[in-house]
Amino acid sequence: MTRLPRWADIVLTPLLSLVLAFAISALVILAIGENPWTALTTMVTGALGSSYGWGFTLYYATNFIFTALAVAVASHAGLFNIGAEGQATLGGLGVALVALALPWPHWGLALPAAMIGAALFGAAWAFVPAILQARRGSHIVITTIMFNFIAAALLNYVLVNLMRPVGSMDPASARFPDGTHLPKLTDLAASAGIEWGKNTPANITFLIAVAACALVWLLIWRTRLGYEIRSFGRSERAARYAGISPVRITVVAMLISGALAGLMAVNNVMGEAERLLLNSVEGAGFIGIAVALMGRNHPFGILLAAILFGFLYQGGAELALWTSIPRELITVIQALVILFTGALDNMVRMPLERLWGRR
Amino acid sequence: MIPSGEHEPGPAQGPGFGAAAAPAGAWAGAPAGASAGGAPAAIELRGISKSFGPVQANKDIDLTVARGSIHGIVGENGAGKSTLMSILYGFYRPDAGTIRIGGREIAITDSQTAIRAGIGMVFQHFKLVPNFTVLENVILGAEDGPWLRGSLARARGELQRLAADYDLQVDPDRTVETLSVGHQQRVEILKALYRRAEILILDEPTGVLTPAEADHLFRILGGLRDQGKTIVLITHKLREIMDITDTVSVMRRGEIVTTMPTRDTSPERLAEAMVGRKVLLDSGRTPAVPGPAVLDLKGLRMVDKDGVERLRGIDLSLRAGEILGLAGVSGNGQSALMEILGGYPEPGAKVEGRLTLNGRPLPLTRTDAGARRDAGIGHIPEDRQAEGLIMDFAAWENTAFGYHDRARYGRGWLMDTAAMRAEAAAWMDQFDVRPRDPDLASRNFSGGNQQKLVVAREIENDPTVLLIGQPTRGVDIGAIEFIHRRIIGLRDAGRAILLVSVELDEIMQLSDRIAVMFDGRIMGERLPGQTDAGELGLLMAGLDPATTAPEDGIPPEVGGPAPPFDPGRDRPSDAGPASPSPSKGII
What we know:
heterodimer, A: mainly alpha, ABC transporter involved in vitamin B12 uptake, BtuC, 15 helices, B: Rossmann fold, Rossmann fold, 6-stranded mixed β-sheet, 20 strands
């Protein structure tokens, strides 16, 4: 078949998929007797129309960037890491343990320590499936899914039995000390004299996420390790021929992947909740799969796709707030976007290729 | 012995390698112009064009194939042969032009139409269900109704008739995966005949056959032709064209450059027409000046993870400045041997034996191809698409593949991409890789140029010992000439070379010594000047040349040495086993 030019493949296909997804969503909204145009404007103004909306959009996007990068790194090694959810859960535990361990004097010290904790716990949670895959051939899709459940159960146990403050009825850890309070983007803007995004959870972790995108790009396309990861991901036979150890690459790629997923906890646990809650990941690990898919496993694409999904999350919340469209429908819209941009990618690409071939 | 049909050429010995000296063998002089008497041609193509985006795969093709003849189509890789045949079989629709089958103009929209028009195709990669019986494979897609009983009974009778008519014996109740490769091919032919094919297209049919099996196939094709069937043979082996076809067409860059009766041409002229310039079919080899033994292998045995013994005690000694050719039908352990020498025995395999390089022992069991390269053993793998290259990588990434930890690509974590690009550009220059674009993804190069990338990388890293697997499989003639000269150049520089090839011609042409492998063993060693294809063919079939006549060298129907359905390994695969497209891609 004719190949599409690069720009069409990267820009046109996802855009068309998106339009299709929105079109069908509009039909669904029409079917339940609401006005799709009102719905769209509510979403756009709610999520992107004000710095307040943007604050939430970017906060969600930060979560998705980390989990999507995690999925992408594994995916370059030909591994499908469905366990970002569990790895982020464990990352939260790492953050909480670090934050509560010391009376941190300043966030500048607490942040790097918390990042290390988050990354270590996330990586450790990815290590077991990785080594099982590399040495025993246990399929990583199955094991990472199972590890999501184990992570949820483990966190449940730890919060209820170990970390819950005495006397509290809430399955959550104690509040983190004030010294771990991360600056919000609002604070950063204010120090530059701009009033932006008051009362939003977007915090400095967003900048770390953007830096992580750059670092992952460097890792994948500029380092020896990235070269070996990509080689292994494309062809295990070729990798073996080239002297690249499948065991080593499987484990290393999954460690990096798990660490990235774990880092998400810096945003939601340390930056927002400031204590460890049950189910704080809220499905971001799975959204990350869709984001990575849509962003074509490229950090820059992931950045854009994450912002789109942040918009969907925030816009969806606005929709539930201001219209009588039920909350469940927002999930339907998100599902349609995932379906079209991810699973049904070829439905758009193939006619497009045919169109191209005919010119 | 094969029961002879009426077409049996008798004492003329058939058009085998033994008879290679007599071009236009026993049949070629026969009914070349059978249709001259006014009967419509079997196939008549007029002005067929097909382009894929900017690539013109077929340009204004006119082709007439007479009924009851064998018509050969030769051309380099990417000349458009496969596209043309795919058009004929309904996989592609032409942009322009008309197709007449038996004088009637038809539009072939899909393979069903093609089959109804009496066209049958035997693909290079068989389209058989391995765990079905022969009978079930034959009726697959041509069942009479929802109940198989009737179809199977009918097919059984039909198969008996075909077997008697065309010398196509296969046990109908055997599962296909237990058959030898040659017999699997017969099943493919039977499938086409069962669908009442009058025109049979065969794409590179002899790639997986021993010389004797190929001879037998040609006898079958000759018989079919004599019964009035029309055969189109796509091949890159000029000798097959000379031996068996009545007329031959040469394709170059999407066009048919010439069509002529086979008896009026010669291999040299065909090669020249294919490439568009004079080609030296002889590699210009001077006798070797072998030095001391460099690589020494003793008692190599390998049992794969399923417990099958694939290598049964192999001793080899390789001297500096010589090429040791390892002949054999694919699937007799050559791949396993090369992988083990290259430092990556297949996972789960048990390996024993002793390997030394310049007297220093090398580990046989551990998987570390990188250490092999450090020790000075380079490797051009038999399957460049699955092993030698990462197809999605740019050329400059692939020219470092396997050597990517060398300091010249940068110290520390980061790779010096500028140095990699510069080196790739220089090597592409020296090895005439076209297009000369280091940033182009490897899959967008033609097979010959892909292979040049691999050859450039392995030769330029200057190995002490170079392992070469199928250096010219799916490579066009111009590139073959070039690659052969480079290999000989490396030998003359005093390097030791182990060459594995299923192309007996290539082995005979390049080797200073020839060892023949069969069923995980070395059957014997010969000097190229003191042997011939017949003798080597017997060794390749696992027979003793001292007691067997050459034409009996056909492996038994069952239990050939190769696990026949192991795609991607030990099989020619220039399309790659996972290729979804029926043709070999566009260019």
